[in-house]
């Protein structure tokens, strides 16, 4: 498992904040609600990608 890096945490939060600001502006949601939606979507997406990559034939196991 990769080591924790504060640089990537800050980068991820910055990306989430920019996306939340756009979602808030487009949908008229409060910023904090939009931020919660974006953060949950990013976490679920990363978990699904990790699961998919570890399946036989996936990115991490291409020959199986």
Offer a concise description of the structure.
The chain is mainly alpha-helical. 70% of the residues lie in helices and 0% in strands.
Break the fold down into its secondary structure elements and pairings.
Blueprint: H1 6-27, H2 31-53
Question: Rounded to an integer, what's the Rg over CA atoms?
Answer: 15 Å
Number of helical stretches of at least 4 residues: 2
Q: Tell me which oligomeric state these chains represent.
A: single chain
Structural class: mainly alpha
H-E order? HH
Major sheet: size, sense and barrel closure?
none
General description of the model:
This protein is mainly alpha-helical and 64 residues long. It has a domain at 30-56. It has 2 helices and no strands. The chain has helices spanning 6-27, 31-53. Helix 1 packs across helix 2 (31-53). The longest helix is centred in the middle third of the chain and has 23 residues, at 31-53. The radius of gyration is 15 Å and the shape is elongated. The protein starts with 5 loop residues before the first helix and ends in an 11-residue tail after the last helix.
What are its keywords?
mainly alpha; 64 residues; 2 helices; elongated; single chain
């Amino acid at each position: 498992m990769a080591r924790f890096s504060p640089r990537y945490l800050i980068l991820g939060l910055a990306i989430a904040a920019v996306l939340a600001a756009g979602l808030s502006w487009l949908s008229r949601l409060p910023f904090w609600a939009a931020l919660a939606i974006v953060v949950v979507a990013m976490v679920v997406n990363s978990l699904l990608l990790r699961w998919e990559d570890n399946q036989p034939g996936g990115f991490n196991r291409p020959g199986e």
